[in-house]
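hey so u asked for the seq, here:
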Amino acid sequence: MTTITVLLAALAALGLTFTVMLLSRAAKYGQLKPNAEAAGLGAITNFFDTLGIGSFAPTTAWIKFRRLVPDSFIPATLNVGHALPTVVQATIYLIILGIHVDPVLLAMCIVAAVLGAVIGAPIVVRAPVRFVQGVVGVALLIAAALYAMRNLDLMPEGGLATALPAPEMYFAVGAHFILGALMAFGIGLYAPSLILLSLLGLDPRLAFPIMASSCAFLMPTTGFSFMRSARIDFRIVLGITLGGIPATLLAALVVKEMPIVWLRWGVVVVVLYAAVVLLRAAFGQRAPTVAEPA
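ran it, C-alpha cells below
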C-alpha cells in the first residue's frame, strides 16, 4: 500500500470515530440541534479556508463580535467544529496533490503535528481563562500580520522542490511539532506552515496536502479531549461542522480558486478587532464579557 492510501484509510477511520463521538456527546448534553448562525459561519470560513484564507482567525473574530461562546470555549470550538470539514479538505488535497509530495516529509510532518497537539490539548483544557485569552489574542495579531504580508507580496514565493534535504526536513518536522501544540490553543497552522515550507524551497502548492493533512489528523485527535471538557457548546460546533463540509466540497471541486485579496484585507480588520478585545479581557481588570458556566 502506498503512503497516500494508508493516510486516506486512517483519515476515514479517524473521521468516522470522531463523528460517532461528536454526536454521542452532543446527545448526552441535549445539544444535537445545530446553531443556524454557526452553520453560516462554518460555511463561509471553510469555503475560504479551502481557497487559502484560513478558518481559525476569522471564526474567532466572529465569535468575539457576536459573543457566541465564552472565550475559554474558543479552542474547542475551532478544533472540534472545523475538524470534519478539514478531514474532507485533506482527503481532496491528498488525492489531487499528495502523490507529488515526498511521502516521508508528508508522514513525518503529520506525526509531529499530532504529537504536539496531544501535548497541547490537556494544557488548554485546564488553563485559566485569561491565559487562553492572552494566547489567542497574540495569535490573532500574528495572523493579521501574515494576512497583510501576503497581500503586500512579502511572503516567500517558494521553490519547485517536491522533497527537502535531510537537515531542512528535520527542521520542518520539528516546527510542525510546535505548530501542532499551538493548534490546541486555536492558533492556525496553515499560514506559518506555508511560509516555513516555502522558505525551505518546497513548491507552495505541495504545502497544502501537508498543512491540511496535519490539521485533519490532529484536530480530531485533540477534539476527543475537548469533547470531554466542560468548555464546549455542541450546538455551535455542530453548526460549524454541518455548514463547513458542503462549503469545502464546493470550494475544492467547483470554484477551485478566485481573487481574494480584498477579502483578506477585510479579514485583517476583523481579526485585529478580535485580538484587541481578547487582549483587553486578558490583561484588563474586568471579568470576561461572557460568563463561564457554573
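Residues 3-283 form one domain. Residues 287-294 have pLDDT under 50 and may be disordered.
lmk if thats what u needed
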